[in-house]
Amino acid sequence: MARDVTVIVGSLRKEAFSLKMAKALVELAPASLKLEIVEIRQLPLYNQDYDDSGNPPADYVSFRQRIKAAEAYLFVTPEHNRSMPAAMKNAVDVASRPYGKNCWDGKPGAVVSVSPGAMGAFGANHHLRQSLVFVNVATMPQPEAYVGGAAKLFDTAGVLTNESTREFLTQFLGAFAAWIERLAPREG
Hints:
Helix content is 39%, strand content 16%. With 188 residues, the protein is an alpha/beta fold.
């Protein structure tokens, strides 16, 4: 049975390179992984008052349930001002609260950062990793994935056409599958 991996995309733009990359990752995933993109655009900004009232927004509740149910997480992020986008940070915050009910806790994850620039969203990748350490996502250290030049990697239909990038991502996903098995072996 394939591992249930939630994919979180940091951009809200409908033609975002990170969304195109996430779709390519879903396509390239080995049979041992079932990647599912989970939407974050509907999440209200995290506000502790919602949890303190005992009546958090329905979008918080359903997102938290999905995060808690996943076996692993794949974060695909662009870079905004050398950081992860606000929507990505908000998703991390929503699923880590209320205090003591961190839905991310102890599960494996990986980060792919995507940018039209040459640095491949290096700053966003590391800023996201910093937050993931705090919420206790065991983020795969190697291989790292900084995908630059994104504007030239996809055709007009959003399909990843760059063969060397496809090969790299296939290897990355294989390493991620091994990382998940190492940290969350199946009972047998």
